[in-house]
Amino acid sequence: MSSDPLLTQFTIKNLTLRNRIVSTSHEPSYGEDGLPKDRYRAYHVAKAKGGVGLTMIGGSSIVSRESAPAFGNLQLWKDESVHWMRLLTDEVHDHGAAVMIQLTHLGHRSSSYSGDWLPTISVSAVRERAHRSFTKEAEDWDLDRIKGDYVLASQRCVAAGMDGIDLMIHGHYLDSFMTPFWNHRSDKYGGSHENRMRYPLEVIKAIRAAVPQDFIISARMSFDELRENGLSTGELLTVAQDIIDGGVDVISALGGSIDSDARLTRMIPIMGMASAPHLELIGEIKQKLNVPVMHAGKIADVPTARYAIEAGLLDLVGMTRALIADPYLPTKIANKTVDQIRPCVGASMCIDGIYTAGAAFCIHNPSTGRELELPQDIELTTKSKSVAVIGGGPGGLEAARTLAEKGHTVTLYEANDSLGGQVNLAIRSPRRRDLQGIIDWRTQELKRLGVTVKLNSYVDSSDLAKSGFDVIIVATGGLPKALEIPGNEHVIESWDVLSGAKRITGDVLIYDDHGGNQALDLAENLANSGAKVEFVTPERTMATDVGGMVASAYFKSLSALGVRFTVLRELNRIEKNSDGAFTAYLGMEDETWEEPRVVTAVVAETGTTAISDVYDELVSLSSNGGEVLIEALINGKPQTSVRNPKGKFQLFRIGDAISSRGIHSAILDGARISRGI
Fold this sequence. Notes:
Layout: E1 10-12, E2 15-17, E3 21-23, H1 38-49, E4 54-62, H2 81-94, E5 98-104, E6 121-122, E7 136-137, H3 140-159, E8 164-168, H4 173-178, H5 193-210, E9 216-222, H6 233-245, E10 250-254, H7 261-267, H8 279-286, E11 293-295, H9 302-310, E12 316-318, H10 320-325, H11 329-334, H12 349-356, E13 386-390, H13 394-406, E14 409-413, H14 423-426, H15 436-449, E15 452-454, H16 461-465, E16 471-474, E17 478-480, E18 491-493, H17 494-498, E19 507-512, H18 517-528, E20 532-536, H19 548-560, E21 564-566, E22 570-576, E23 582-587, E24 595-599, E25 601-605, E26 608-610, H20 613-619, H21 630-634, E27 650-653, H22 663-675
Parallel strand pairs: 3-4, 3-12, 4-5, 5-8, 6-7, 8-9, 9-10, 10-11, 11-12, 13-14, 13-16, 14-15, 16-27, 18-25, 19-20, 19-25, 20-21
Antiparallel strand pairs: 1-2, 17-26, 22-23, 23-24
Helix pairs in contact: 1-2, 3-5, 7-19, 13-15, 13-22, 18-19
């Protein structure tokens, strides 16, 4: 038995977990037809193969049809869910892990404009800011029906062989009865603590009576709502004891609330925020409860997780986002290769991606959510090749790493004196400094794998063509895209400001026609340095490609700094005034009127233009002419195109060397193309 606290066994009722590491309930939006089919199963099986003790699937799986799926939720009101849950359960068990599933009725945390377009229901007629629906107050017949739905869904989980269920008593339907923040009823379910607990306890007791006694019931709940009119820690301890007495076996403890982006961010901290902010509170809670306690909340590194168990703060530690970044984290701990764990950098693409990209993705693990096409394991090649990678940004680093893992001989050329590409600009923002982990981990892995890295190396296409490489991958990135308007010579490039090459004061207009983090970083950088900033975008909303959790942190900061936000305005032209200032003329699409802004400087963020010189010069010399077979790319299969039989090497380009993309896209490009070599 291991002496590592994280790897010690833990028993709940008749279930013995092989270690204390848990992937807590979350919804990656990988389901099909509201069911955990092949993609969903592969995602959780990877965690089981990676050594996790318990994986909890189906975050916010809905028990009732009128609880419309808000973020890709599994739908446990469907009888066919049993079949798919059984397949997943059996395969997870085969790899030595336990599996539970979270049940809920979303209540006010849903939409009446999705699913079957039925009215949303809550304890009272309320509206949640995050999901924006106006609810009706649950009637007696609603209460009876939904209670029955909870029982039926629980029985389906038993039939599927699940080890237990996790009741979402946090920000959803059941929780709305418990807290006066939502509960405004005047009947037997409102008012006093006893009345507010009446219905949730009816549901819990009905479930407990309908499932086997050794079937585990967990409850996910907050111990400090951190909002006005919310319940205090003392009151929530009473709630916890009530539900334990009602039949709950495990408490999954949290801090905070989830009814807005800002509150959700406090509960699930993102990059730039403190690690494990609720851990000490939950440790105090554990001492007062007589059931096992688990907790997840930015416990992203092994030392913090180990401390939580060793110090007796937790019985089970949720490392959910860390396992999204590296599902083999437990095995690497066991093998004493902790330094090889791919770190979670807190970018929140796993959460925000559900809304911006339709599913959860890890910013720098391209296999997560794509296990069927790009397995977490990389197969060794049967024929080693000599490969050149041109460019040491995240895409080039991932390509070089993947190729080396496959057994190829890799040389990476980087024109600058350090690796990282545009990430080196991003990490200049204190808010995004954790992105450094993307580069540091890959740099370390290249060293371990024996990749030859040549810094300060500008490569010549003719020299490359003569160097005997079998494959050349161009990852040269891009340069700031010019704003094509009259007076564009007066525009300052965003990179010059972020790098510190140019310092700007006074009245500054930031024009964002990109929609990513870059312009937000600019605004925060300049406002912090004392500039008076107006942030202008032609879009109808700010930072359209930045998810709600990350954006809310920016907007809170920028508002405090006095940044002015202007939407639906084009930057038409810029004129230099006789006093050295500039007049920027703003307009609106298809309109002739203009609004002048007299400013000290105009800074624009409009994405990048590909640096493709080397690629363009090599195309005619390559065997494939740069061609990429799309189906093969998506599935990580060999690229077999031959457009020039006389060509001596294959040629590909990735990331910003193709077009303005992002960190995840570049890394995904590098992983996909390299899997097929």
